[in-house]
Amino acid sequence: DAGVTQSPTHLIKTRGQQVTLRCSPKSGHDTVSWYQQALGQGPQFIFQYYEEEERQRGNFPDRFSGHQFPNYSSELNVNALLLGDSALYLCASSGVNEKLFFGSGTQLSVL
Amino acid sequence: GEDVEQSLFLSVREGDSSVINCTYTDSSSTYLYWYKQEPGAGLQLLTYIFSNMDMKQDQRLTVLLNKKDKHLSLRIADTQTGDSAIYFCAESEPPSAGTASKLTFGTGTRLQVTL
């Protein structure tokens, strides 16, 4: 049983560009959450998707957007990248009211 | 708002017990979690405790919760070099209908195990 898978593992972009990160949830899970982990910090909640809709959102600007597909996989899009967007982006999946399981993350570097 | 605090660093000798502490502010927290993160990796759920419990033991791990003081600790017995990692405390509020838990994490405690 595959766990939560994320792609790509590493990504380098320049300021102003746009990026798309992908996540496939653990089998049987229908809810996907995204977290941003800056260097030396704990993860911070970006948003959560369930039934293809954004259900909860953290304190992140509109440059951060997402999507969930009918197969429960999800994408995180970031527009107009800033240097401060450099971080490890973690995807977590769960069933409703169940514990979160995290992927290994995508390391994004913005130059 | 929610806030979770942890000490930044802990060094222990192999075979000793490690105790990692965490304080949180949200009195409506339902679950409190401990996650482990190894270099270059994601988060591994180690254990969790429901807020109406005061202790949970799972093999070498013991979680103690003092709800009155909003203090959570993780004790690792017989600490091994493979336990070297960053440990995150996290809390969640009761999820709304149709949502999963949203976690608030501390900044993490780096555990160094020396020989």
Helix content, binned percent of chain B: under 10%
Strand content of chain A: over 45%
The rounded Rg of chain A comes to 13 Å
What is the typical, i.e. mean, pLDDT of chain B?
Answer: 90
Secondary structural class of chain A: mainly beta
Spans of chain A of 5+ residues with little confidence (pLDDT < 50)? none
Which geometry of chain B do the CA atoms define?
globular
List how many beta strands of chain A DSSP finds.
11
Tally of separate helices of chain A: 0
Features:
heterodimer, A: 111 residues, mainly beta, seven-stranded mixed sheet, four-stranded antiparallel sheet, 51% strand, globular, B: 115 residues, five-stranded antiparallel sheet, 11 strands, 0% helix
How would you describe this structure to a colleague?
- The complex is a heterodimer of chains A (111) and B (115).
- With 111 residues, chain A is mostly beta strands.
- In chain A, 0% of the residues lie in helices and 51% in strands.
- In chain B, strands 2, 4, 5, 9, 10 and 11 form a 6-stranded mixed beta sheet that branches.
- Chain B starts with a strand and ends with a strand.
- The A-B interface holds A 4, 31, 33, 35, 40-45, 48, 50-51, 55-56, 58, 90, 92, 94-105 and B 4, 33, 35, 40-45, 48, 88, 90, 95-96, 98-108.
